[in-house]
Design brief:
The complex is a heterodimer of chains A (62) and B (295).
Chain A: E1 7-13, E2 24-27, H1 31-45, E3 48-51, E4 56-61
Parallel strand pairs in A: 1-2
Antiparallel strand pairs in A: 1-4, 3-4
Chain B: H1 5-22, H2 36-60, H3 69-92, H4 101-131, H5 134-151, H6 157-160, E1 161-166, E2 168-171, E3 174-177, E4 180-184, H7 188-197, E5 199-205, H8 208-215, H9 217-231, E6 245-248, E7 255-259, H10 266-274, H11 290-293
Antiparallel strand pairs in B: 1-5, 2-3, 3-4, 5-7, 6-7
Helix pairs in contact in B: 1-2, 1-4, 1-5, 2-3, 2-4, 3-4, 4-5, 9-10
The chains are: A alpha+beta (62), B alpha+beta (295).
Chain lengths: 62, 295
């Protein structure tokens, strides 16, 4: 049986042109909004938010 | 009452059970759990002691087939190991910082082997009593107890690594202990938490063999578990980003320990890390390999 150990649960970005569908994407206006959304999603999804760049955060379940 | 009554009662049952009580320590790990968990093991120790004690009279009476019941004892105590492993594995899912399978296996093996030690103690003491006399039996008892004490405490991490406190820092989103990369933390708020609560240590192996031992993921998990038990841990089920971790420096085999203790006492933390047991299953001896010795 295939068990996924890690999975991207959500993507949060301020630059919509850098991401495509595949996970839920949250597009934000500013860095502050992105931080807020990521903090909420982290608590809700019980995953860790990792920064890929200043514009993209992903929430990963470990 | 016959000539075997006192040797069995004194040698086997009393001394054997006493030996089990001596090596049944409930320390900071709180395992076996107080009272109920302990009673189970004292009872099993009593059974083991009785088995060891009656083996000698059985042989003296030329009842050689009676020795086969020792094999029943063996399967009985293997069951103890399975039981301990089962319970601890079940519980592990509910720990904030899990013990890890290697640590659990180590504990389970210790429980099984200690019962055999009790059997041997009972056997030797009864034998000494029957062949010589009670004074000789007391002498054998003391020797057995000393041996048990000596061999039941394995080595600790302090023997094989040197431990230093290290700085916790961020390079962008990357968390570092000294120069060892630990993990990526995205949220500035979490980064602030980590800078506030986190502590870092670097463990440098004292020789080449130790490199593979501390690289073992089970051994690393054991370090995290013990530190979190002894010093508390700042972590909850809804904050997965606050997680103690250990990563390895691929260049020289050092490991970087990142912990979130509630008691931020550096001296205490170093003491706790140095008294983490070296897990039997994690020990590797590359220096014993033929390829190494040819040079």
């Amino acid at each position: 049986m295939l068990v996924l150990e890690k999975a991207i649960l959500a993507t949060i970005t301020t630059n919509a042109s850098k991401v495509t569908a595949g996970t839920s994407i949250f597009i934000c206006e500013s860095k502050e909004e992105m931080d807020k959304v990521a903090a909420n999603l982290e608590a809700i999804l019980d995953g860790i938010s990792h920064a890929l760049s200043d514009e993209i955060y992903i929430i990963v379940k470990h | 009452m016959n000539e075997y009554t006192y040797p069995i009662l004194f040698g086997g049952v009393t001394i054997g059970t006493l030996a089990r009580i001596i090596i049944l320590k409930t320390d900071y790990r709180q395992y076996p759990t107080y009272l109920h968990g302990k009673i189970i093991h004292i009872a099993l120790g009593f059974i083991a002691a009785s088995l060891g004690a009656v083996a000698v009279p059985a042989i003296m009476e030329k009842e050689f087939t009676a020795v086969t019941f020792l094999t029943i004892a063996a399967s009985q105590f293997r069951e103890v190991r399975n039981m301990e492993r089962g319970t601890l594995t079940e519980m592990d899912g509910y720990e904030l910082v899990p013990r890890g399978n290697t640590y659990i296996e180590g504990i389970a093996v210790a429980f099984e082997s200690r019962n055999y030690l009790v059997i041997f103690t009972a056997l030797f003491v009864t034998m000494a009593y029957l062949i010589w006399n009670v004074y000789f039996a007391i002498f054998v008892t003391i020797i057995c107890f000393l041996l048990i004490k000596k061999y039941m405490s394995g080595s600790t991490l302090g023997d094989i690594v040197s431990i230093k406190e290290a700085t916790v820092s961020f390079d962008g989103a990357g968390l570092y202990v000294d120069n060892i990369y630990i993990m990526n933390i995205g949220l500035p708020a979490r980064q602030a938490d980590i800078m506030k609560y986190g502590m870092g240590f670097v463990l440098t192996p004292k020789n080449f063999d130790v490199r593979s031992t501390i690289a073992n993921l089970g051994q690393r998990q054991a370090i995290l578990h013990d530190v979190s038990i002894s010093l508390g841990v700042i972590r909850d089920s809804g904050t997965p980003a606050l997680v103690p971790l250990i990563k390895r420096d691929l260049d020289d085999g050092r490991i970087g320990v990142f912990v979130l203790p509630q008691d931020k006492d550096v001296k205490k933390a170093i003491k706790v890390i140095s008294s983490v047991p070296v897990l039997e299953n994690a020990i590797r001896m590359p220096s014993e390999s033929k390829a190494q010795n040819k040079e």
